[in-house]
Specification:
about 110 residues, alpha+beta, Alpha-Beta Plaits, four-stranded antiparallel sheet, two-stranded antiparallel ribbon, about 20% helix
């Protein structure tokens, strides 16, 4: 079994991902908001491993009913782009994999990094 911190590398914080983490602004009820969070994950991980790793990391030390519940995981493979390294030589950024994690209604991550 893999270590959860080897699967989840870091949160991916951009303007779009922060907006997704706030949920739909038209919903006024705090318990009905569905939030989505974006993470950079290991390229060899699958959706089941990502779901289990997120729940283990954020539910560590909490009782069974108090923690978060991941409802869905979507993954995106991002290919590295070509970059210039100096005047003539070129190189490539490394490939990476992102995961968009959806939590159950009314749940949020306190220490996401926002």
């Amino acid at each position: 079994m893999k270590n959860p911190h080897d699967i989840i590398i870091a949160p991916h914080i951009t303007e779009k991902s922060v907006k997704l983490s706030y949920g739909d602004p038209q919903i006024k009820d705090e318990n009905a908001i569905v939030r989505k969070y974006t993470f950079i994950v290991a390229k060899s991980s699958n959706k089941i491993e990502i779901k289990r790793a997120i729940e283990e990391i954020y539910n560590d030390g909490k009782k069974k009913g108090e923690g978060i519940e991941v409802t869905s995981v979507r993954t995106i493979k991002v290919l590295g782009r070509e970059r210039r390294r100096g005047q003539k030589s070129t190189g490539y950024e490394p490939d990476r994999k992102k995961a968009v994690v959806t939590l159950a209604k009314g749940q949020l991550l306190e220490d996401y990094g926002v």
